[in-house]
Design goal:
It is built from 7 helices and 5 strands. The chain is of the alpha/beta class and 244 residues long. It has a domain of 106 residues. This is LytR cell envelope-related transcriptional attenuator.
Length: 244
């Protein structure tokens, strides 16, 4: 169909667009700005990212350390001490014309203050009584066999085995035996000068409870190979001092 045979009058779709614009009723003519603004947007975004990264890195490298404040505090304290010394020197200079009434009083006060400081220092050394015990008395086996051997010589030996056995029984032990010298439970390897509690391997808790009952020192609660080899006994108490 030719243009002369077209039955309809011309309208806006028949008008040719600007030079270079696509021809067609479905395409809207595009301006020059619409083809440029995406590139400008990308340039602005990347420029902002670059500035932000540079700022972040520069701030991270300028992080101050803790040394300068310490140095400033030291300098401030030094200045304060210098001013104090200056004022003190001035006051000493002003009062240099007067003779002190009594210098011995100041020395006495200083001496008393030094002695007071020494006496006020508390002793931080812990007691060795509970720390050196080999076991926990709360975990003692109250059914274990305990033998009390009286090794005291002289008139003080009378009744000491029974008295000590009563102390052990009072602590809750049910199987307690008492022997007087010279009878001994077995041949003991060693000489004991103080009341000593010997125990078999694995009986440290029971021995600790027995030692507390008879008043034995923690250093005298000892593991015994002789007692470990005993088929029946768990703890022996060797009495060297009267009880009660």
């Amino acid at each position: 169909m030719t243009k002369s045979q077209y039955p309809f009058p011309p309208d806006e779709f028949d008008v040719r667009g600007p030079e270079g614009a696509p021809v067609g009723v479905h395409r809207e003519p595009r301006s020059g700005w619409s083809s440029v603004w995406p590139f400008l947007l990308v340039a602005v975004v990347f420029a902002g990212l670059g500035v932000g990264i540079i700022s972040f890195l520069s701030d991270g490298g300028d992080t101050p350390t803790d040394n300068p404040p310490v140095a400033s505090e030291q300098s401030a304290s030094a200045e304060g001490s210098g001013e104090g010394e200056g004022e003190g020197g001035g006051s000493e200079g002003e009062g240099s014309g007067e003779e002190p009434t009594d210098g011995s009083g100041d020395e006495g006060d200083e001496g008393e203050g030094a002695e007071g400081d020494e006496t006020e220092e508390p002793s931080e050394e812990p007691s060795d009584d509970a720390a050196e015990m080999p076991g926990d008395p709360a975990a003692a086996d109250l059914s274990a066999r305990v033998v009390v051997w009286n090794d005291i010589s002289g008139a003080e030996a009378a009744g000491q085995a029974g008295a000590t056995a009563d102390l052990v029984t009072g602590a809750g032990f049910a199987d307690v035996g008492a022997l007087d010298a010279p009878a001994a439970p077995v041949t003991l390897a060693g000489v004991y000068d103080e009341t000593t509690v010997l125990f078999a391997d694995g009986r440290a808790d029971t021995a600790t409870a027995v030692a507390e009952a008879v008043g034995a020192a923690p250093a005298n609660v000892q593991l015994s190979d002789d007692l470990t080899n005993s088929p029946t006994d768990a703890v022996w108490v060797i009495i060297k001092e009267p009880v009660g």
